[in-house]
Amino acid sequence: MFERFTKDARAVVRGAVDHCAEAGGRTVGAEHLLLALLDREASRASFALAALGLADRKDAVRTALEETRRRAGLSRAETEALAGLGIDVSEIVSRVEEAHGVGAMAGDGAAGDGKAGARRSGRPGFGREAKGVLEQSLRMALARRERHIGDEHLLLAMTVRPGPTAEVLADHGVTHASLTRVLGGGGEAKAS
Fold first, then answer.
1. Which residues pair with 149 in a beta bridge?
2. In the chain, what are the domains?
3. Contact indicator for 169, 159 with CB cutoff of 8 Å
4. 43-67 pLDDT, tens per residue?
5. Where are the alpha helices (DSSP H) in the chain?
6. Three-class DSSP category at 113
């Protein structure tokens, strides 16, 4: 599948691995792919994000992703469902971080048993969510009748896969519908 990735999409994948490694993680997640997309300039995805007004709010997205990681990757809907059962996720996070340090619930496998997707080379492996985004990006390209997978397909894939990454994007105005509108049928950015 990677032979179908454009130069920009490959750069996103490499950037995601770098973000994961810099954070001390062993498993690349969808959030690492999004962070790598936010780093891109002069690509279809970066133009789409700029057209949707995200260019000025990248730091807010990074902060929201970090908060999600601190909650062990739980989405707001999951946090609310647990609250309905009388479980206060914020309180749990506070207690765990008090005992084990900030970010202890990040779930990146850095302090785990090595089964979190680490490769023998020490480079982070891809987790279920990241693999799902990569697979979905192929479906997105095929649905748009495009031969190659670009970084815009990775971004589109993130908006349709349920979870914290899609939630953070939606909170910042980036949904599948808004991206489709901006990318248009021919791939040219249009005003939203």
1. 5
2. 2-74+107-183 (1.10.1780.10)
3. yes
4. 999 999 999 999 889 999 999 998 8
5. 7-22, 30-39, 44-51, 58-70, 76-84, 89-100, 128-143, 151-160, 164-171, 176-183
6. coil
